[in-house]
Design a protein that fits this description.
Layout (H helix, E strand, L loop, with lengths): L1 E5 L5 E6 H9 L3 E6 L5 E2 L4 E2 L2 E6 L15 H7 L13 E4 L14 E4 L1 H7 L4 H4 L13 H4 L11 H7 L1
Parallel strand pairs: 1-6
Antiparallel strand pairs: 1-2, 3-6, 4-5, 7-8
GO molecular function: endonuclease activity
Protein name: HNH endonuclease
InterPro entries: HNH_5, HNH_nuc, NA-targeting_endonuclease
């Protein structure tokens, strides 16, 4: 069981284990906003609802803007595992401007690519091949990218994650 943690300003921060969420609630560092139906958890002094979403009582400053690191898995996920050139199933990634020509490992220069297109393109640009990109590569946005663990989210979390998007 997992719990969504919201900052004091209702900004999604993280997904934590049920035990960690319960410890935060028991130490009065968080309050339960959404509960899971079922039996409460009994402590020595009181009973506690099973938390689905908790709100921190104090605001936690998040350092800087959250940047999503560029990874192969992230690029494939961003593009829906579809080739940026032919829309077939993608298993690799491709540099739009090849690395041999100074292309960077950035969200704006990487697209998901099928093996056939990747081999055919080689170290050329799409313009030289006469190809067009289906999508414009850009950094991913939304709470499912900045808040770890929301890929397999609980339906109860949706209203809170929508606020961050």
């Amino acid at each position: 069981m997992r719990t969504l943690v919201l900052n004091a300003g209702y900004e999604p921060l993280a997904v934590v284990s049920f035990k960690r969420a319960l410890v935060l609630v028991m130490n009065d560092k968080a309050t339960v906003i959404e509960r899971v139906d079922g039996d409460p958890v009994w402590g020595t002094r009181a009973s506690y609802d099973r938390p689905a979403v908790i709100l921190l009582t104090r605001y936690v400053r998040v350092p800087g803007a959250r940047r999503v690191p560029v990874t192969r898995r992230g690029v494939l996920r961003r593009d829906g595992h579809r080739c940026g050139y032919c829309a077939k199933s993608a298993t690799t990634i491709d540099h739009v401007l090849p690395r041999s020509r100074g292309g960077a490992d950035s969200w704006e220069n990487l697209v998901a690519c099928c093996l056939r297109c990747n081999n055919a393109k080689g170290s050329r640009t799409p313009q030289e091949m006469g190809w067009q990109l289906r999508i414009i590569p850009q950094p991913p946005r939304g709470a499912q990218w900045t808040v770890r663990g929301t890929e397999r989210g609980d339906p109860v979390w949706e209203p809170y994650l929508a606020l961050a998007a």
